[in-house]
Design brief:
By secondary structure, the chain is α/β, with parallel strands linked by helices. It has 3 domains: 17-200, Serine Threonine Protein Phosphatase 5, Tetratricopeptide repeat (Alpha Horseshoe); 210-322, no CATH class; 325-588, TIM Barrel (Alpha-Beta Barrel), CATH 3.20.20. The protein has helices at 4-21, 26-29, 31-39, 49-67, 80-94, 113-129, 137-148, 152-164, 168-181, 186-200, 212-215, 262-265, 268-278, 291-294, 307-315, 351-369, 388-396, 418-423, 425-430, 443-449, 455-470, 473-480, 513-522, 541-547, 557-564, 576-579; strands at residues 43-45, 99-101, 216-226, 231-240, 253-254, 326-329, 374-378, 405-411, 431-437, 499-505, 527-532. The protein has a 9-stranded mixed β-sheet with strand order 5-4-3-6-7-8-9-10-11. Strands 1-2 form a two-stranded antiparallel sheet. β3 (216-226) and β4 form a beta hairpin. The longest helix has 19 residues, at 49-67. The structure holds S-adenosylmethionine and iron/sulfur cluster (2 copies).
């Protein structure tokens, strides 16, 4: 008897043979020519125009066998296997780190400008092919999106079509579905904003100012195509100019590849992002995720008085000689946990990666920290005590030439044992903010959302941290060091925020929010950050939607709203800037 696997394989071979022998329309019969004539002109490559010929050729080669299945008729658009193969094949283009749509100035880490542009043209051809079956472009795109399950490009195309046809509510629904796949996606956000524009209006930010791109450098990871393995891989070092990469997801440079700090801090992309702030178009800022935009608390340019920022505004400076005021590192994923909200399995850098990280530490990271008054945020990705690289940076800070460094630690806290404090005595002297991600108030929930963390260990460690905080250690550092120059009120929302507990609100834990406030009181934490659950793209949109209880579409959303209204959540310990992302607002 044949196994289901071999039956499926035979079906696939038969289908391919049938598809290849059937008569194909001209555009698919010579897809290489179609690509050269229709696709190439839509794209731009940082590797130069000539490279685009190779890209168009390769894409045609990859897509030819996939699109051959269109010979089976319009029903194939509803087939999950077809849609997923189509999606995976086009992903090859989306993950080419040098390629964008022709009119894009910068590339986002989750960029789909190029693949949306190509798919738009492909959808147009497919709709023509199936016009006799009564299908138009909107229907082709929406069928592909439904069949694939988690594919941003057809959702964006269907949303754009809906908008063009005056169906802004439908467009907003498509945009939200795309944002459930990757919350930071600028194309999906733009669609949502355009869809909401008529109904709710969008704030005009001209005349406003944000200091972040003039003060902050954040490093992280991107996904790119690996030609050798013919699959995707994580690339370390992509760097951004805002506290959270998701708020300005456009890449300013790469701290791991750079030869000097200037390659990143004053790159052309960095200058363009700063220009967008000075001109007031805020083109690279997320209007759905940035809490300062969402809460409408950006200062007016004319009200900025800090001398350095005043000079930058008046002289329209986009090249900055004096380096970032705050450096937030997240380019090494290494971590002792695999929280389901963040990743699918344990990640630890290997030897060759650690060697590259050592070079980056010497060439870029330590020079940005040496003999300067600067804040160092460790870490936005990975964990400062599980990563060999981050630990080596913390070790280097023992030396006198790093006296001006103030530490903002963000950690899962499991490595911050009593022994860790004893072996690195300089840490306690440098920390101005210690933020610990806990996400739970009970053992059962903690061990579910912070796997494979142990509740007993975090509770013990929180007690130790609480004692240090109670002794005033972190607060003393804040007022004795150079933190006055670090104007990041996202990390330091109030002058009291020294020991902070963080909680990513999701279905598994939202009922523990009141108990979490009590836990913070018990361990003497100054502040609690209830953070909205973002889609990092590692779990399908269905899984994400089932956890994102802050979404009005979630069945338990009203229960969350009731909890948010609880008196205990109005505690002064709870940071209200972030609460605004959870509380229902009419616009988003
Ligand atoms: C990626 S972690 C890196 C630092 C450290 N390992 C930690 O957990 O605090 C940075 C922050 O992202 C939060 N986080 C994890 N998954 C998230 C998600 N899906 N949405 C929003 N924040 C998330 C973590 O709880 C943590 O506060
Ligand atoms: S996203 Fe928000 S915080 Fe970041 S630069 Fe733009 S306005 Fe500033
Ligand atoms: S501890 Fe932090 S970096 Fe590690 S998996 Fe959890 S959220 Fe991600």
């Amino acid at each position: 008897m044949r196994s289901p696997f071999s039956r499926r394989a035979i079906r696939r071979v038969m289908r391919n043979v049938r598809a290849l022998t059937e008569r194909r329309p001209a555009w698919r019969a010579r897809l290489d020519q179609w690509m050269a004539a229709n696709a190439r002109e839509l794209l731009k490559s940082a590797r130069g125009e000539a490279h685009l010929d190779d890209v168009a050729r390769e894409l045609a080669q990859r897509l030819t066998p996939v699109l051959a299945r269109l010979c089976e008729g319009a029903a194939v658009l509803d087939d999950r296997e077809f849609a997923t193969e189509f999606q995976n094949t086009l992903s090859w283009l989306a993950y080419q780190g040098d390629i964008t749509r022709k009119d894009s100035k910068l590339r986002a880490y989750c960029d789909v400008t190029a693949s949306v542009a190509i798919l738009t043209r492909l959808v147009n051809e497919i709709a023509k092919e199936f016009s006799r079956a009564g299908l138009n472009e909107s229907e082709v795109a929406s069928k592909l999106a439904d069949a694939a399950g988690s594919w941003r490009e057809p959702l964006i195309i269907a949303g754009r079509r809906a908008l063009a046809e005056g169906r802004s509510d439908d467009a907003a629904k498509y945009a939200r579905r795309a944002l459930n796949i990757v919350s930071a996606c600028p194309e999906s956000q733009r669609l949502l904003i355009d869809a909401l524009r008529e109904r709710a209006g969008v704030p005009d930010l001209r005349g406003r100012f944000c200091p972040r791109p003039f003060e902050v450098l954040v490093s992280g990871q991107t996904t790119a195509w690996n030609d050798a393995t013919n699959t995707t891989e994580q690339v370390m070092g992509a760097s951004y100019l805002c506290d959270c990469a998701a708020w300005v997801p456009f890449i300013a440079g790469n701290v791991v590849e750079a030869v000097s700090p200037d390659d990143v801090w004053n790159s052309e992309a960095a200058q363009e992002i700063r220009r967008s702030i000075l001109d007031g178009d805020f083109s690279y800022c997320s209007r759905t995720l940035c809490p300062i935009i969402v809460n409408d608390t950006l200062p007016r340019s004319e009200d900025v008085t800090a001398p350095r920022l005043r000079r930058i505004i008046d002289r329209r400076e986009t090249i900055l000689d004096d380096g970032p005021r705050l450096i937030a590192l997240g380019h090494d994923s290494s971590c002792n946990l695999a929280c389901p909200s963040c990743r699918v399995g344990l990640v630890m850098a290997d030897k060759p990666q650690n060697e590259r990280l050592d070079r980056a530490r010497e060439r870029v990271i330590l020079p940005l920290l040496r003999n300067r008054q600067v804040g160092l945020h460790l870490t936005s990705w990975g964990d400062p005590f599980a990563s060999r690289h981050y630990r080596s940076i913390l070790e280097a800070l023992r030396h006198d030439d790093f006296d001006g460094v103030s530490l903002f630690l963000l950690t899962n806290g499991l490595g911050l044992t009593k022994n860790a404090w004893t072996s690195m005595p300089h840490l306690a002297e440098k920390i101005v903010e210690l933020r610990v991600s806990v996400d739970a108030a009970t053992k059962e929930t903690y061990e579910d959302v912070r796997r494979p963390g142990r509740w007993e260990i975090i509770r013990e460690n929180l007690n130790v941290m609480g004692e240090l905080s109670r002794a005033g250690t972190f607060r003393r550092n804040r007022f004795s060091g150079g933190t006055q120059s670090v104007t990041s009120d996202l990390f330091l929302d109030t002058e009291h925020a020294s020991f902070v507990l963080a909680f990513v609100v999701q279905r598994a834990n939202f009922r523990e929010m009141p108990a979490f406030v009590r836990l913070a009181e018990e361990v003497n934490a100054d502040t609690i950050v209830f953070q909205r659950y973002y889609s990092f793209g590692h779990e399908g949109s269905d899984v994400f939607s089932s956890k994102d209880v802050a979404s009005p579409a979630h069945p338990e959303h009203q229960e969350l709203q009731a909890i948010l209204a609880d008196q205990i959540l109005q505690s002064p310990r709870v940071l209200q800037t972030f609460m605004a992302q959870l509380i229902d607002r009419p616009a988003c």
